[in-house]
Design goal:
The protein has 386 residues and is an alpha/beta fold. It contains 14 helices and 14 strands. It folds into 2 domains: 2-102, no CATH class; 110-379, Dihydropteroate synthase-like (TIM Barrel, Alpha-Beta Barrel), CATH 3.20.20.20.
Length: 386
């Protein structure tokens, strides 16, 4: 899938083009105002040559970049004419990406017997049943306490409760599937029955996901990116899934935080996993994506993603943000996990303004209020207006 890139100014564009190996002078300042800049990630040399041959007669620039990607600059009118008169699959992808990027209607997000309306931002409340999670480990030591916390988050405005039994913070050690399931089994069942909102299970293990879905959960939140066995579980159980980007394992993921272009590389990974899941029988409407802030990303990588979240909308799938209380926020604003509320809300505001749909957070009440304010400001319409 293609990816639409919007630059804030020529300096930002020029700096990125140099990093990607695009020759100086390939574009001018005026091109930023008159052309669409569309990347196609994970493209072969043969496909690049075919695309250049197809678009050369239209005076459209096609430039290979580092990282097996190509940058196409094209006027909207030229792209429209190509789409109306017949075009290759790659050009059709460009049209789809541009349509998704500018779509007013939100994407569908559904499962076999339900769906979530994304016409407004939705809040996913975090319920960790672990002794070692980075922010709230050990705060829900028994089933009753955990269920009460879930019900409280629902009352505060959570639209989904996300239940996890294994910490995936940087450097964390794995637990066995049996241990993970023993931590969450009764809580998943009771919250699914009592909360009246969808339940997601935060796991990277197919056997745990299957049990949770049969206990009442309807969404799998998979930090490992929905590999084949997990995709089969999602398909067979009629569930929805959040596909997240991560390299390696939580124990070693911070050992490799280098990217050619962090947004482009993460986008290509997510696109590939979404395509494989759909090819394996998971309906596209049941998939959301998460760029994985803090998972194999350094501070600069996280901030780059935060500033370019709108690009992920080019895929046409709901985008989830998981920035709440994470370490990179502490590094830019100070404080430990319990001191990062203001920075977490700032991340929510930045993401909401760029059209992100789902927000996975610890502080539900404060996030709901912030999203109401930001949504009204972005739309220029009071929530009380008809």
């Amino acid at each position: 899938m293609a990816r639409v890139r919007t630059y804030r100014n020529y300096q930002e564009a020029w700096g990125e083009w140099r990093r990607l190996g695009i020759p100086d002078g390939a574009f001018t300042r005026f091109d930023l105002a008159s052309r669409q800049f569309i990347f196609i990630d994970s493209i072969s040399k043969e496909e690049v040559s075919a695309l250049q041959e197809e678009l050369a007669p239209k005076k459209t620039t096609v430039l290979p970049c580092r990282g097996d990607r190509v940058l196409v600059t094209i006027t909207p009118l030229t792209l429209e004419n190509l789409l109306m008169t017949g075009a290759s699959p790659r050009v059709l992808e460009m049209g789809e990406a541009l349509r998704f990027r500018n779509e007013v209607e939100p994407p569908l997000f559904e499962w076999s017997d339900g769906s979530l309306d994304l016409s407004k931002p939705r809040v996913v409340g975090i319920l960790n049943l672990t002794p070692d999670s980075f922010s709230d480990g050990g705060r829900n030591p028994d089933v009753d306490t955990a269920v009460q916390r879930a019900l409280a988050m629902k009352d505060e405005g959570a639209d989904i409760i996300d239940i996890g039994g294994e910490s995936t913070r940087p450097g964390s050690a794995p637990v066995s599937p049996d241990e993970e399931w023993s931590r969450i089994s009764e809580v998943v069942r009771r919250v699914s029955e009592e909360a009246g909102v969808p339940v997601s299970v935060d796991t990277r293990r197919p056997e745990v996901a299957r049990k949770a879905l049969r206990a009442g959960a309807v969404i799998v939140n998979d930090v490992s990116g929905l590999q084949e066995n997990m995709a089969q579980v999602v398909r067979d159980e009629g569930a929805a899934a959040v596909v997240m980007h991560m390299r390696g394992e939580p124990s070693n993921m911070q050992n490799d935080t280098r990217y050619v272009d962090v947004v482009g590389d993460v986008y290509a990974f997510l696109e590939g996993r979404v395509r494989k899941a759909v090819a394996g029988g998971v309906p596209m409407e049941r998939l959301a994506i998460d760029p994985g802030l803090g998972f194999a990303k350094d501070v600069d990588g996280n901030l780059e993603i935060m500033s370019r979240l709108d690009e992920f909308r080019s895929m046409g799938r709901p985008v989830l943000l998981g920035a709440s209380r994470k370490a990179f926020l502490g590094k830019i604003s100070g404080g430990g996990p319990e001191d990062r509320l203001e920075a977490s809300l700032a991340a929510v505001a930045v993401a909401c303004w760029q059209g992100v749909h789902l927000f996975r957070v610890h502080d539900v009440k404060e996030t709901v209020r912030a999203l109401k304010a930001v949504s009204a400001m972005r739309a220029g319409i009071s929530p009380r207006s008809p």
